[in-house]
Each structure stands twice: as structure tokens, then as C-alpha cells.
Amino acid sequence: MNRRIGLFGGTFDPPHLGHTRIARAFADQLALDTVIFLPAGDPYHKTAPRAPAADRLAMTRAAAAADPRFAVSDLDIVRSGATYTADTVRIFRQHYPAAALWWLVGADSLAALHTWKDWQTLVRQTGIAAAPRNGFTPTALPQPLHHWAAQALADGSLHLLSAPPDNISSTDIRGRLKTGKSTAGLLDPAVAAYIRRHGLYTDDTDTP
Ligand code: ATP
């Protein structure tokens, strides 16, 4: 049987329980054999990550230990320069020509899909699955995505995750770590231990 693979790109700065919760829900609802987390090396459409790629990779591996369907790839870290989702998916498509591929996102990322390099090629290479997120619903998309979204919903290549949204975000967690607030219920204990051990996010410069 053809493998069903979810590709979950993110900064994972740090990975949190919102990530693993939606990854699990995607795996359940799309009957995925595996969800591959892909920490970004050099995100071109976001401010620079606060933690080094090696730490974000190690934390993502710790978070991914929570479910046997989860795996982690360093593909986007070891490639030099800016990495684009369309290229990442093309590489996976070459490795798994017969697999059903799903690119997994939160609704905030989906709403910016039309700004991604070669996005129209991307959506021909992979299904897109989107989780609801605070302030963003996958159905309220910007105008440039309307035509594609209507078609993709009709032909099944866009899946909207059925799950309640939560408020967990890496930015909020970094703010809490900087100010010594609790991160209980937000981080996997193994990730929280890694952050403590390596003294990460203590001098974070995010503005709330
Ligand atoms: P930040 O808060 O700093 O923007 P983040 O929490 O969104 O970071 P990322 O690593 O950038 O973390 O997220 C990777 C992917 O996971 C993105 O597609 C994002 O939309 C999605 N995502 C992250 N947290 C949630 C959440 N709580 N609910 C739904 N999707 C989420």
C-alpha cells in the first residue's frame, strides 16, 4: 500500500504541545503513516530564529518522541541558504514517488500561502492540510487563494482539520521563559528540560 506521509515544517523555536497536538490530529484524520517534522534552517519569511538550528533540531527530536508515528528530518537545516517549501516537497516527491504527501500547516501559515515561492507548483505536488488557530480560520482566506481553495476543497487536496483551536505559540513561550513565568501545559517535559539544561531563551529580544 502507498505510504501516507505528513510533512510538518516550522521554526520550532521551541516546539510546543500545540505542534504535537495538531500533528497527532492530522495523523488521525488523514490516516498518515508518519508525520515528518522539518525544522527550518533559514526561514526567509520570518524573523531569524532565537535558538540555533542544532538546538531546535534536538528539541524537535525530543518532542517527536511522544508518538511512534512522528519522525524528524534535518533536510531544511543541512541545505544551505534559504529553503523553500516547494523545493522541500519536490525532494520528498522524488524520494517517495507513489506516496500520498500532505503539507501540514496552521491556519495562519495557510493564509500566507500565496506569498510562498512557487506556491502553485507546491499545491500540485502535495495535499495541504490546515489546523484552525487563534484568530485565523482556514476558511477565511485572502482573496488570491479563493479560487484555489474552492477547487482544492472540492477535489479533496485541501483538508481542514477538525479540532478546537488553542492559543499555544512559540513566541508566547519564549516570553514566558524570559520572564520566568510557568510553561506548564505548553511544552513537552523533555523539551522543557532541554531548554533549562542549555539556558535557551533567557535573553530573548521578542516584543510581545
Ligand atoms: P510563533 O508563535 O513564534 O509564530 P509558532 O508557534 O507558529 O511560532 P512555528 O514553528 O512557526 O511555531 O509553527 C510551525 C507550524 O505550526 C505553522 O504552520 C504554524 O501555523 C503551526 N502552529 C503552531 N502552533 C500552532 C497551534 N497552536 N495551532 C495550530 N497551528 C499551529
UniProtKB/TrEMBL annotation:
Pfam families: CTP_transf_like (PF01467). Its EC number is 2.7.7.18. It comes from the Bacteria. It is an enzyme of class 2 (transferase). It catalyses: nicotinate beta-D-ribonucleotide + ATP + H(+) = deamido-NAD(+) + diphosphate. GO terms for biological process: NAD+ biosynthetic process. Pathway: Cofactor biosynthesis; NAD(+) biosynthesis; deamido-NAD(+) from nicotinate D-ribonucleotide: step 1/1. PANTHER family: NICOTINATE-NUCLEOTIDE ADENYLYLTRANSFERASE-RELATED, PHOSPHOPANTETHEINE ADENYLYLTRANSFERASE. Belongs to the NadD family. This is Probable nicotinate-nucleotide adenylyltransferase. It comes from Neisseria bacilliformis ATCC BAA-1200.
